[in-house]
Write a structure and sequence with these properties.
Layout lengths: L1 H21 L2 H56 L3 H49 L1
């Protein structure tokens, strides 16, 4: 029994020795740094896509505001021209657009918050990666 235990111990120690010899610390560190850089590149891509989305939300909000103003002007014009049915339809369009604008404002605020959080997190990760690299 003792011989069997000693042989097991010897085989384990030889295996551990071979693994230690095979590991090159410099290669392991270089691989870790490459993985960190790949992760940062991926995070930058996501951040860029989110920035584009926030900018598109902003443009859409502006266009919706312009459309609301347009339909308000049309309603006032129809009332002045004594076209009550057209004025009602213009006001209905304005209300629909105002509802859409509220939804867009909520989405914009949410996306902008995510963008700020991701931007701060990315800067923190870049700082950590700079220390490692």
């Amino acid at each position: 029994m003792a011989l069997k235990n000693r042989m097991g111990f010897l085989i384990k120690s030889q295996f551990n020795h071979l693994v230690t010899i095979a590991e090159d610390p410099e290669k392991v560190i270089n691989q870790a740094v490459e993985e960190i850089e790949d992760g940062l590149d991926s995070a930058r891509s996501v951040l860029s896509a989110l920035k584009s989305m926030v900018e598109e939300d902003k443009r859409l909000l502006h266009r919706t505001g312009d459309q609301i103003a347009y339909w308000q002007e049309r309603a006032e014009s129809f009332i002045g021209d004594d076209m009550e049915e057209n004025a009602k339809e213009a006001l209905r369009m304005r209300r629909v657009l105002e509802e859409q604008k509220r939804d867009l404002e909520f989405k914009y605020a949410e996306d902008e918050g995510k963008l700020n959080q991701m931007g701060h997190a990315l800067k923190e990760l870049e700082g950590r990666a700079h220390v490692v690299g």
